[in-house]
Amino acid sequence: MSSVTTMTNSKLQFLRRVLQANGLFCAVSGLLAIVAAGPLATFLGLAEPLILVVTGIILVPYGLALFWIVSSRDSLLGQVAVVAIVLDIAWVLGSIVLLLTNWVPFTTGGKWAVAIVALIVADFAGTQIYALNRVRQEG
Hints:
Elements: H1 3-35, H2 37-44, H3 50-72, H4 77-101, H5 108-137
């Protein structure tokens, strides 16, 4: 195996691992949102826990699908990375809008929680962009 092939494989592996971690984070976060919707809603300052349940119902299959697809398909890795990056950026922008507009009357702890999750998601987006660019530079 040539050093170029090894380098490309390690770069693909890094991208795959970042996407898998993102998928696991989404699935676990979604499961937590479903299972602990009531207490989380109270902590965040939400009047109803339904939005957390709905968010969890979306995040769990998305996260599991992301993990599964990038674990089993090299040919789709780049396309899936782009979709994950776009969705992560949308999540971060949506979080910023919610925090700046006060459309949702979050508690202080809720604002911190939304901001921390947004930072984690932004880190995933940035790392995925970095990893995807490294793969694309190989050709």
